[in-house]
Amino acid sequence: MLEICIIGTGRVGSQLIRVLSHTNGVKITQIYNRTKIKLKAFESIAPTTSEISDLKSANLALIAVKDDAIAPLISSIASIFPIIAHTSGSLGLQKHAQNNAVFYPLQSFSQKEIDFNQVPLCLEADNRQTLDTIENLAKKISTQVYNVTTEQRKYLHLAAVFANNFTNQMYAMAQKICQANNLDFEILHPLIQETATKIKTTPAIEAQTGPALRQDTQTMQRHLKLLSTPEEKEIYRLLSRAIQNTHKL
Amino acid sequence: MLEICIIGTGRVGSQLIRVLSHTNGVKITQIYNRTKIKLKAFESIAPTTSEISDLKSANLALIAVKDDAIAPLISSIASIFPIIAHTSGSLGLQKHAQNNAVFYPLQSFSQKEIDFNQVPLCLEADNRQTLDTIENLAKKISTQVYNVTTEQRKYLHLAAVFANNFTNQMYAMAQKICQANNLDFEILHPLIQETATKIKTTPAIEAQTGPALRQDTQTMQRHLKLLSTPEEKEIYRLLSRAIQNTHKL
């Protein structure tokens, strides 16, 4: 039985609590949040506390708090837990605990329940035995387990910004254009789905279509006239140029 | 029985031929392409021709050729067909034929076979009877049929550039970052899928996450240092600013 203390009950922490509370061979021994009221929802799952001094030893502490709070938190609980793993994409492996690890679920978590079985878990540890422990845990809850170094994880997090945040901003701009013209954004759903699915089997660079790729200057000029703000026009120009530069190489 | 002549056997034309050749109440009477060799693949489906002068009358001509070629083509065959519909997203309703229509399938067509039943068909016509004819046809092959004016279609096409071409460029950049760092792009698939699925139920603007939204300047500075070209840095800066401006409003 792997005993786990969960530190933090935000988006990542609460999803981890949900999935780990139903995982065989795992016991959540304690749940921590510095704000007492945020622990209410978890009282039926495990003992909760808002006091660092109340934390009791377990095999592993999983830390899911804001990046800035991670290092000081690990320092203050380093003596209690043999292994401390954080769940941040952008922070390196910390060195304050006895054994240090990273347990980074690469997914965009909202309130919605996620099928954890499909969430890539990116792991790192400062020794083989610690890696084995978190790898065993990871494989219990997901089929997508990867060993990723701190250096790689930095780039992975950057790639995720392009693949998720910037992509989502493109969706938001498309949705804005639809709304302003009484068009149901739903019309674009199949296209969005097709593009997101296509890149699983076709390199994105080969999947490209559209006026920029075709060097269709007339259509691009017409599009620029339809856009209302300088920022929208700048994005259209820059991304069209990026497509053309990508395909020049 | 609706008799249809298909003009053009490119990506859109060939997908239309494939689906219409299996549609009840529809008969493909002739298939045209100006390049004879490109008709080979369709000879078993219907009579083919590379000569405009060989075209025979049918209830409807569906034109799936390059935008620039559409207007002259319609003029040269206007007397042969009672209804001529083009399939372009960016061209307005033409006025050269007896009855004019638009039959625009909003999807990114590659070689891959598409489930036409899910392809939004955006229709327009210069009179009610013509619209009825193409609407009946559209409903035979897709569950997603929309009436869209020329003006709306222009914006829809622009929105599709953001939702598809620019999004795909974001995927390509993420994939490039992964490849340069020995990271399997597959790690990002669930995230990409989740984001594309989420916008079906959550407005994209509400689905946004990430360092730009959080005003996490330190992470953004670190990301900028990891990017290798001035163009990549410019895209990162501009889209991060766009996210922040979008969420300031």
What is the CATH topology classification name of the largest domain in chain A?
Rossmann fold
Q: Roughly what is the average pLDDT of chain A, rounded to an integer?
A: 95
N-to-C terminal Cα separation of chain A, in Å?
A: 54 Å
Residue windows where pLDDT falls under 50 for at least 5 positions of chain A: none
What is the assigned CATH homologous superfamily of the largest domain in chain A? NAD(P)-binding Rossmann-like Domain
Output the helix-strand order of chain A. Answer: EHEEEHEEEHEHHHHH
Provide the spatial order of strands within the biggest beta sheet of chain A: 3-2-1-4-5-6-7-8
User: Helical element count of chain A?
Assistant: 8
Known CATH architecture of the largest domain in chain A: 3-Layer(aba) Sandwich
Largest interface: A-B, 90 and 90 residues
CATH class of the largest domain in chain A: Alpha Beta
Short description:
Chain A is α/β, with parallel strands linked by helices and 249 residues long. Chain A is 44% helix and 15% strand.
Describe the 3D structure.
The structure is a homodimer of 249-residue chains. Chain A has 249 residues and is an alpha/beta fold. The first copy, chain A, has two domains: 2-148, Rossmann fold; 152-248, ProC-like, C-terminal domain (N-(1-d-carboxylethyl)-l-norvaline Dehydrogenase, domain 2, Orthogonal Bundle), CATH 1.10.1040. Chain A contains eight helices and eight strands; from the N terminus they run βαβββαβββαβααααα. Chain A has helices at residues 11-20, 67-77, 128-141, 150-180, 189-198, 204-207, 217-226, 230-248, and strands at residues 2-7, 26-32, 48-49, 60-63, 83-86, 99-105, 121-125, 145-147. An eight-stranded mixed β-sheet of chain A has the order 3-2-1-4-5-6-7-8, with helices on one face. In chain A, helix 3 links the parallel strand 7 and strand 8. The termini of chain A are far apart.
